[in-house]
Amino acid sequence: MKPNGTLLNIPSIKEVSDLSGLSLEEIGDDHLTTSLVETPLRADAFEMSDEDKIATIAHHFRHIMDTLGLDLTDDSLKGTPQRVAKMYVQEIFSGLNPANKPKAALFDNKYHYDQMLVEKDITLFSNCEHHFVPIIGNAHVAYISTGKVIGLSKINRIVQYYAKRPQVQERLTVQIAQELKQMLDTEHVAVIVDAKHLCVSSRGVEDRTSSTITAHYSGKFAEEAVRAEFLSHVYKR
Ligand SMILES: [Zn+2]
């Protein structure tokens, strides 16, 4: 059975509405995205070294804490700006940097396995790009080989790489699917992301039970029977 959740139909790139004319107030608290596939990054995003980014972010985070009235001479607080900056650059947003992209180790499909391979319940930690608070959930990924296969842990690493960015769930789902298609040279890819957004549960409407499901099916997974088989593997209990 599929869990209860909000099923978002991911529109094609052409269908994504243009938000450029809207003010921040008009966009409000809704999670709308302007770019479906590419994370909006500046061309000079990686000209600054990681060390300089950490120093700059620590400097600005210190200002945020100071503005909130926190006493930065306190033993418990004084290391926080540096800790947060390191965590941003080296851990939770490390997937912004293409240098950190997992290298693909592909193998020939020696066993001539021509059915779907499903990797389910992949742990997913990301952060919402609208509020910078966590998105916590699972990803379920499947592909049908057209000649190449990939090490199983690589699928987890691809999910993690794209999750370690400020994200919207729709884009994360498509980015994982695109990467697998490109890496494995197959169109037959399915990705489901099922996640809770702390910006929905811990603040705002404070709904602790809802989750958001996004899905991307392409190639043979667009066929109803193939999709049904994938879903039966993922949601059998
Ligand atoms: Zn949010």
Describe the structure.
With 237 residues, the chain is α/β, with parallel strands linked by helices. It has 2 domains: 6-11 and 104-235, GTP Cyclohydrolase I, domain 2 (2-Layer Sandwich), CATH 3.30.1130.10; 50-98, GTP Cyclohydrolase I, Chain A, domain 1, CATH 1.10.286. Helices cover 33% and strands 22% of the residues. It has 7 helices and 8 strands; from the N terminus they run βαααββββαβαβαβα. It has helices at 24-27, 50-67, 80-92, 152-163, 169-184, 198-201, 224-235, and strands at residues 6-8, 106-108, 116-128, 134-144, 148-150, 166-167, 189-197, 212-218. The strands form 2 sheets. Strands 1-8-7-4-3-6 form a 6-stranded mixed beta sheet. The chain has a two-stranded antiparallel ribbon with strand order 2-5. A hairpin with a 5-residue loop joins β3 and β4.
